[in-house]
C-alpha cells in the first residue's frame, strides 16, 4: 500500500475520539455470545435455498445464503410488467375479528404468496427501459455503438476511508471533482450528467415498455439496488482518475460504520473554494454523530467532538448495533440483504433488503436538507415542482452532493464485506446475473458501455478493492445486543393467552401512522429447514414518495413497549425505509421488505415455537398502507 495514502492520525478530524482498537472494546459492543452460540453450517443443500459458500466465518450466526421462497422456480425472477396487469396484493385478512381465524388466514396467505408466479415478460436490459425526458437528466444520444464491458486485468485502485486520507490524497480528490464539475454538460462524464444519472433512474424519468410509457422504473426497492449502484460509481470513479491522469485513484469512502467516521467528514464541510462542499446539507447535523437509525431514534443529536459522556457512548453503540443488524442478523440470505426479485407484473411483490433499508437510507435523510413548504435553491422535479428536501435527502438531487458518492462507496463496501468476510452469496438466477445497463466511459472519447450484473459481483473485475487495514477491525461485528423484555421458551408470543383472547387482530389492509403500533398476533412460524433461513416478508406496502417513510418491525414485544424497540435489541427484526422522491399529488408507490429472522427467533427463545407476534412500529408522520399481512417463510 502507498505509505503516503494514509495518515495514522486523521488530518481531516484532528480530534478523532476512537481508535480502531478501542472501538471494539466500547461498552455494549464487546465480544458477544452471538458468535459463540453460532449455528453449525448446513451440509445439505436445498434447491429452494442453497446454503452459503464456504467461508472462514462459518461460525457466524447470521448465516448468509442465497435463497428464494419455497415453491418458486427460477423463471419467475426479475421480470418486467405486462401492460395492464399491474395489480396490488389484496387484503388477505379482511373481516377477521378473532386470532384463531387470523392464524388460519395468515397460513393460507403464506401458501398463496409462495405459490404466486410472475408471468414471463422480458428481463431487465437497456432495451426494455427508456428515459422519457428529452433533456437532462436523460443521457445524451450517442452515435457510437454500444460496446460490452471488458473486465479489468489488474486491481489498480484501492478505496480508502475519507477521514484517514493524508493531505496529498485530499487535494487529489478535490482536484478530480473540480475538473469533473468544469466539464461541459454535453459531456456525459461531467458532474452535471453524473448527478443526472441517479435522478433519471430513481426519480420517474425511466419507464418500462417504451411503447406504452406509463410505468415508472426505479433501481431501488429490489435486488437491482446494490449492483446498479456499484456500476454507477465505478464509472464515476474511473472518470475522476482519468481527469487527474491517475488510473490508481480510488474513490474514498465515508467510513460511517466505525466510530471515528461517524460524522460528515471534515473534507466535505469547508465551504471556501471546495468542490466537495454542498450547501444543501442539514446544518444542524454536520457536526453531530451521524445517526444510522435516523427517523426512529428519539434521542437528541450528540456533538461528535463534544464530551464523551453517556449520550455520546449511547449514540455510538446504537450505530454499531444498527450495522450489526444490517450486515449480520438481518442479512441471512441474498433476499434479506440485497432485496427481493423485481416482479413488476405484480409490483407489490418487490422488496428491500437490509443493505438498502437501514444505514443507507438513514444517512441520505440525515445529511440532506429537510423538506418544507418553501425554500431557496430547491430542486425542480420531473413535474416542474420545487422540492425542498434535497440534495442527499431527495432521490432526484442526491447525486448533486459529492458526499453521495463517498457514502455509496461505503454502501458498496458493506456488500463487499458481506460477500468476502461474512459468507454472503448473491443470487444465482440468470435473470439477475444477466440484467444489464448502459453507462458512458472515457472522458476524452465518451462511449456507451453495456455492463451486466455478473460483471460486477467481484470487484476485482472492476479493478478496485477496499483498504485491508480499514476492514481488519470491524467494531460492529461483535456488538452485544440486549433484550427489551423477558422471554420464555415455548411461550409462543409476548402476549399471554388471556390477552390474545381479548386482543383484536389487525385487519389488512391496514393504514399505519407514526407511533400507532400495529399488533399482528400468532403469525405462523414454519419449521426450520436445514440450509434455509427463515425470513419475515411484508409486501403490498403503499406510501407517499414525496416524504420520508419508515417503520420498524419487532417480534414478541408487548404493544406498550414497542416504541422503545431498536437495533440494539434482540427483538428487532428490521426496518422499512425510503428516501423521498417525486410523486404526483395522491400518488402511491408500492414496495415491500424482507428480514432474516433466524437469529431473532433464537434470541427471543421462539426458534421452535409455532407462532410469534409481529409488531409494526411506524416512525414517520405520513400514512403507510400495508395491504398484506406479514408472513414468515423458510
From TrEMBL:
Domain of life: Eukaryota
Entry's family note: Belongs to the tyrosinase family.
This protein's name: Tyrosinase copper-binding domain-containing protein
Transmembrane segments: none
Keywords: Copper, Disulfide bond, Metal-binding, Oxidoreductase, Thioether bond
Pfam family, one: PPO1_KFDV
MF GO annotations: catechol oxidase activity; metal ion binding
Keyword match Oxidoreductase: yes
Required cofactor names: Cu(2+)
Taxonomic source organism: Digitaria exilis
Residue intervals of the Tyrosinase copper-binding domain: 401-412
Amino acid at each position: 500500500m502507498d505509505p503516503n495514502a494514509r495518515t495514522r492520525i486523521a488530518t481531516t478530524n484532528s480530534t478523532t475520539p476512537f481508535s480502531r482498537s478501542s472501538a471494539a472494546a466500547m461498552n455494549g459492543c464487546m465480544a458477544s455470545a452471538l458468535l459463540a452460540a453460532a449455528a453449525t453450517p448446513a451440509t445439505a443443500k436445498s434447491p429452494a435455498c442453497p446454503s452459503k459458500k464456504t467461508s472462514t466465518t462459518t461460525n457466524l450466526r447470521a448465516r448468509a445464503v442465497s435463497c428464494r421462497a419455497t415453491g418458486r422456480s427460477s423463471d419467475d425472477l426479475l421480470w418486467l410488467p405486462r401492460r395492464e396487469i399491474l395489480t396490488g396484493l389484496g387484503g388477505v385478512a379482511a373481516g377477521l375479528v378473532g386470532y384463531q381465524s387470523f392464524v388460519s388466514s395468515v397460513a393460507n396467505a403464506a401458501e398463496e404468496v409462495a405459490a404466486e408466479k410472475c408471468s414471463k415478460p422480458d428481463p431487465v436490459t437497456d432495451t426494455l427501459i427508456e428515459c422519457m425526458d428529452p433533456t437532462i437528466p436523460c443521457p445524451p444520444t450517442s452515435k457510437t455503438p454500444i460496446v460490452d464491458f471488458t473486465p479489468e486485468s489488474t486491481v489498480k485502485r484501492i478505496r480508502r476511508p475519507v477521514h484517514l486520507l493524508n493531505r496529498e490524497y485530499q487535494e487529489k480528490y478535490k482536484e478530480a471533482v473540480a475538473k469533473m464539475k468544469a466539464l461541459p454538460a454535453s459531456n456525459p462524464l461531467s458532474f452535471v450528467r453524473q448527478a443526472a444519472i441517479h435522478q433519471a433512474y430513481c426519480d420517474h424519468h425511466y419507464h418500462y415498455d417504451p411503447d406504452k410509457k406509463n410505468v415508472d422504473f426505479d433501481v431501488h426497492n429490489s435486488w437491482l439496488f446494490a449492483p446498479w449502484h456499484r456500476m454507477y460509481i465505478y464509472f464515476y470513479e474511473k472518470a475522476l482518475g482519468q481527469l487527474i491522469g491517475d488510473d490508481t485513484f480510488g474513490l474514498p469512502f465515508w467510513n460511517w460504520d466505525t466510530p471515528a467516521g461517524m460524522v460528515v467528514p471534515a473534507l466535505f464541510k469547508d465551504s471556501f473554494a471546495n468542490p466537495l462542499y454542498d450547501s444543501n446539507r442539514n446544518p444542524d447535523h454536520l457536526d453531530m454523530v451521524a445517526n444510522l437509525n435516523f427517523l426512529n431514534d428519539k434521542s437528541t443529536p450528540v456533538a461528535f467532538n463534544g464530551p464523551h459522556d453517556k449520550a455520546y457512548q449511547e449514540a455510538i453503540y446504537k450505530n454499531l448495533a444498527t450495522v450489526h443488524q444490517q450486515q449480520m442478523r438481518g442479512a441471512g440470505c441474498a433476499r434479506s440483504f440485497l432485496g427481493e426479485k423485481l416482479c413488476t407484473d405484480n409490483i407489490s411483490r418487490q422488496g428491500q433488503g437490509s443493505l438498502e433499508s437501514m444505514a443507507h437510507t438513514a444517512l441520505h435523510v440525515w445529511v440532506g436538507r429537510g423538506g418544507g413548504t418553501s425554500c431557496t435553491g430547491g430542486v425542480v422535479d420531473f413535474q416542474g415542482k420545487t422540492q425542498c428536501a434535497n440534495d442527499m435527502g431527495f432521490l432526484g438531487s442526491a447525486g448533486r452532493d459529492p458526499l453521495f458518492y463517498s457514502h455509496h462507496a461505503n454502501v458498496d463496501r458493506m456488500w463487499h464485506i458481506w460477500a468476502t468476510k461474512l459468507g454472503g452469496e448473491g443470487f444465482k438466477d440468470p435473470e439477475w446475473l444477466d440484467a444489464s445497463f448502459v453507462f458512458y466511459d472515457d472522458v476524452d472519447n465518451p462511449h456507451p458501455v453495456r455492463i451486466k450484473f455478473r460483471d460486477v459481483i467481484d470487484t476485482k473485475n472492476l479493478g478496485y478493492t477496499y483498504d485491508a487495514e480499514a476492514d481488519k477491525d470491524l467494531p460492529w461485528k461483535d456488538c452485544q445486543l440486549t433484550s427489551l423484555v423477558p422471554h420464555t421458551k415455548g411461550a409462543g408470543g409476548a402476549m399471554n393467552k388471556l390477552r390474545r383472547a381479548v386482543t383484536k387482530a389487525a385487519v389488512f389492509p391496514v393504514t399505519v401512522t407514526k407511533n400507532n403500533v400495529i399488533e399482528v398476533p400468532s403469525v405462523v412460524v414454519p419449521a426450520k429447514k436445514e440450509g434455509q433461513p427463515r425470513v419475515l416478508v411484508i409486501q403490498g406496502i403503499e406510501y407517499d414518495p414525496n416524504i420520508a417513510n419508515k417503520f420498524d418491525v419487532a417480534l414478541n414485544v408487548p404493544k406498550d413497549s414497542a416504541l422503545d424497540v431498536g437495533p440494539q435489541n434482540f427483538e428487532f427484526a428490521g426496518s422499512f425505509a425510503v428516501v423521498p422522491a417525486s410523486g404526483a399529488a395522491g400518488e402511491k408507490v408500492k414496495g415491500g421488505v424482507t428480514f432474516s429472522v433466524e437469529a431473532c427467533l433464537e434470541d427471543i427463545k421462539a426458534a421452535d415455537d409455532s407462532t410469534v407476534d409481529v409488531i409494526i412500529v411506524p416512525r414517520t408522520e405520513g400514512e403507510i398502507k400495508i395491504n398484506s399481512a406479514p408472513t414468515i417463510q423458510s
